Structures are given as structure tokens and as C-alpha cells.
Amino acid sequence: MPSTAVLERKKQMVADLSERIKNSCAGVVVDYKGINVEDDTKLRKELREAGVEYTVVKNTILGRAVEDAGLAGLEDVLEGTTAIATAADDYVASARILQKFADSHDNFSLKSGYLDGEVISMDKLMALAKLPSREVLLATVCSVFNALRKKHLQKKQKLLQKHRLKKQLNN
User: Fold this and answer.
1) Minimal CA–CA distance to 111: which of 100, 119, 101, 122?
2) 111-138 pLDDT per residue, tens
3) Rounded to 10 degrees, what is the CA torsion of 116, 119, 123, 124?
4) Which one of 9, 41, 155, 168 is at 20 to 30 Å from 18 when CA atoms are compared?
């Protein structure tokens, strides 16, 4: 039987992780076996720069945390080596970065994920991972607006030239 101090520490870990999950908009659970320290360090750096919190966690701790957070269905994947990546405000970053890493590392794989407090299917998780970053999406939208604006101004310019030409011919 674990000591009271150890039990309290574990309860606090569950509470902290549960709170982190509740406060995140998206999360991904991965199987991280087979990666070396150098690759793990690079992955953690990339995730941190994207605002994603990544933690290796015991399955029992994560199981209790997801239960407390109301993510039914996530417990099914909690076996083997497990880590969780959570993002407070970017729905795509964790899935995109982790899937890119999994593509180049044979033993690393995504187990499951969630969005806004609901567990999502692997198909949805893979689709999410394929989306471009927020910055790329915003740049695309801006370029479309600029193109529309330019086209509108060109049409306006042609109409103005047509009007001037008519005016000159009438004089």
C-alpha cells in the first residue's frame, strides 16, 4: 500500500492533468516507444514553440484524469508507453506536429485525440493533422481578399476609363 504522501502526490497529478485537459481545446495521446533522447528533445521543442504542452504520463494517472475530465472512450487506448499533448488555443498544432513526427519514426504513433472535450475518431484525427497551420490559413484568406480587392479595383478602373473615353468622344 502506497504511503499517504505518495497517494496525495498522485491525486494531485491526476487533478492537475484533468484540469489541463479541461482547459485545452485539443489533445492527442501518443505511443512514444522507440524514440531516442535527441529526437524526443527536438519534438518537445517544436511542440513547445507551437504552444503545445507534452507530457509522458502513466496510463493509470491519465485514465483517472480523462475520466474526471469527462472524456469517455479515451481509456481504451491507455496501454504501453503513453504521452499526451494538449493545446489551449490551437486545434491543429498538436495533431499536425505529432503526425509529422510519426511519419518519420516507425515506432512512434498516434493513439487517439479529442476536440472541445469530445474524443474523435482516428480518421478525424488524421484529417486534422493534414490541415495547414493557423498562420498558413490566415495568409491564404488574406491573399484571397487581396485578389478580390485587386479585381474589384481593376473593374472600377476600366469603368472609369470607359466613362472618360465616352466623355471625350461626346465633346
Assistant:
1) 122
2) 999 999 899 999 999 988 887 766 767 7
3) -10
4) 41
In terms of pTM, does the model score above 0.85?
no
Q: Pairing relation of β-strands 26-31 and 83-87?
A: antiparallel
Q: What does the alpha-carbon distance between residue 112 and residue 79 come to, in Å, rounded to a whole number?
A: 12
Q: How far is CA 11 from CA 29, 117, 127, in A?
A: 21, 21, 35
124, exposed or middle or buried, with CB in 10 Å at 0-12, 13-18, 19+?
A: middle
- C-alpha distances (whole Å) from 156 to each of 142, 159, 160 are 21, 5, 6
- DSSP annotation of 89: S
Q: Using an 8 Å Cβ cutoff, are 98 and 28 in contact?
A: yes
73: left (phi over 0), alpha (psi -120 to 50) or beta: left
DSSP state of 132: P
pLDDT of 15 above 70:
yes
Per the DSSP assignment, residues forming a β-bridge with 110 are: 30
Chain position carrying cell 498538436: 94
Contact 77, 29 (CB under 8 A): yes
Secondary element (H or E) of residue 84: strand 83-87
Length of the chain: 171
